[in-house]
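Forum > Structural Biology > Help requests

Title: Can anyone predict the 3D structure of Thioesterase domain-containing protein?

Hi all, first post here. I have the sequence for Thioesterase domain-containing protein but no way to get a structure on my laptop. I'd be grateful if someone could post the structure tokens.
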Amino acid sequence: MLQTDTEFTPIAAHIRNNVMRQGFMTHVGAEVTDLTRGTCVLSVDRRPELLQQTGFFHGGVTAFLIDNATTIAAATVKGQAALTAEYKLNLLAPASGDRLICRARVVKPGRQVSVVAADVFCVINGAEKHTATALASIAMIDQAIAPKVVS
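Reply #1:
Sure, ran it for you. Structure tokens for Thioesterase domain-containing protein below:
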């Protein structure tokens, strides 16, 4: 029998709400396509504004997806605010296709720093091609001192 994580439901709702208040998320057109405790999947559809002159997705789009997905994945563990401290990104292949998908997963949760891995795939004719991989250190922030966004 599948057991649901009822304590995660309000955490997920809070995270989704905060993420969609990020101006850059809406500017890029990225969406949270999956969110579970310790994981986050972000996706973005191909648009001319996101491409290099060669027609590939710009590396900055890949880096943004990794930056955001790893931070969100870390935040899902306890519903704690998080900020990227650093990440190592390897671009494995040019990202073409119709969509980019970034899958992030917490490798080691921590009280002060969590380690999160991410992989990016582009979808070409329905098949996924691995285009990037990353490992991130995510600083966990005390909710009481986390800055508040005023909109």
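The CA atoms of residues 101 and 132 lie 10 Å apart. Residues 59-78 form the longest helix (20 residues).
Shout if anything looks off.
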